[in-house]
Amino acid sequence: MKKQIFVIAFLFISLQIFSQDIRVPLDTTVVTNNTVVIKGKRISYKAQTGTQPVYDAKGNPKATLFYTYYYRTDVTNREKRPLIMSFNGGPGSASVWMHIAYTGPKILKIDDEGNPVQPYGIKDNPYSILDVADIVFVNPVNTAYSRPIVQPKKKVDKKYFFGINADAKYLADWLNMFITRNNRWNSPKYIIGESYGGTRVMQLAYELQSKQWMYLNGVIMVSPADYQLLRTKSSEDYAINFPYFTAAAWYHKMLPKKLQQQDLLDILPKAEQFSINTLLPALAKGGYISSAEKNAVAEKMAYYSGLKKQVILQHNLEVPNRYFWKELLRDANGKTIGRLDSRYLGLDRRETGDSPDYSPELVSWLHSFTPAINYYIQNVLNFKTDVKYNMFGAVHPWDFSKNNARENLRKAMAQNPYLNVLVQSGYYDGATTYSAAKYTLGKIDPSGKLKNRLSFKGYRSGHMMYLRKIDLEKANDDLREFIKNSSKNIGPAKY
């Protein structure tokens, strides 16, 4: 009787100290057995779904993170089996996008170009990388079912979770415990991040190696957002993004006939050279540029972008991406183009204005992803809860200060000869452009001494290149090749 009273009292005190939504368990696991055919071969695997706490330095729970872990069951030696730790971005986005549309064993029911179809749902992913690696999809605080634990009458400790450095620190702690619990310390390890997840994994690589002593074989960035360039409105920002204008204009057949008749990959290198060798120096001159040079540059920009020269001059050569999304088709058909994937078209209230009313690609994606992930988790993975699944959660204001992610990834690579980096980008992504991703790779390694461990792959789609069926297969094959090459034994880790 005394033991029962003690347990009840302990539970009561615990609930008083740590107030949380009790519909989300602090620490739980649900396991299901499954099979999927990948590359023509049937793969048996388990899906381990649940929550795992985030503890502070004193051992007190600060949050609980929802995750899904897929691992093959026909593997005899898991020490040689790579493990991929997967994140999305936002900040504030659930790890849903790559989970049920890219690398996981299930993908959305959508058409071959990525558009929603009814009935909604999921199907087997014949291109998943589960044949060569196990995968855990991790949801940071306030995304999916992950939630902070807050003392009564207290607020969420935002500084602990919501910032470039804080985010990497607590996620590294969480991953250490996950690796230990699941006995994966001897496995080759990779981290993959999409969009803001690019910044996240750059910082996380260093945090894992320097604070957790967990050494990696690979860092994979999918459509990475580099906030040392993105939205800075600097000369570099405007110039580096320009080749994306060429790609989007080519797709919508808005380029001059001479360019339009060529293949996309034949004209993009020319646009890249123009942006670096001509546009960037011109922008750096500001108001001191001569009228003759300004006119010449504007004319070339019009040639490579499909925009009118007058509009470019009115912007003093600094044309924001958001204006491009509104302007490109303004006179042609009055439609806007998508931010994250410029293949998508939108309809605004007015054709006037300098930015679109909404992002047509994002509402399209939410249209198909939201019902699919809610159905999948509760009915297939058997994780039951009444809590809302946050596709996007409250994480702002996000602390972008002291952003040394690029340099920290360089340090991680320098300190670990096994560590390789792969970047994947879609040419029609107007938010985190492919040319900006290439620029980031160069800035990670200004010495050029690590470039044999840096690689880039481009695709004829947008931010989520994997939504296009052709690129879903190609991008997964590129991941598969990267994992195989970087996980094989290359001898001692030394220079």
From TrEMBL:
InterPro entries assigned to the protein according to its UniProt record, in alphabetical order: AB_hydrolase_fold, Peptidase_S10, Ser_caboxypep_ser_AS
Name of a matching Pfam family: Peptidase_S10
Signal peptide: 1-19
TM spans (from-to): none
PROSITE patterns cross-referenced by the UniProt entry: CARBOXYPEPT_SER_SER
GO biological process: proteolysis
Domain of life, per lineage: Bacteria
MF GO annotations: serine-type carboxypeptidase activity
Keyword tags: Carboxypeptidase, Glycoprotein, Hydrolase, Protease, Signal
Name by which UniProt lists this protein: Carboxypeptidase
Organism the protein comes from: Tenacibaculum holothuriorum
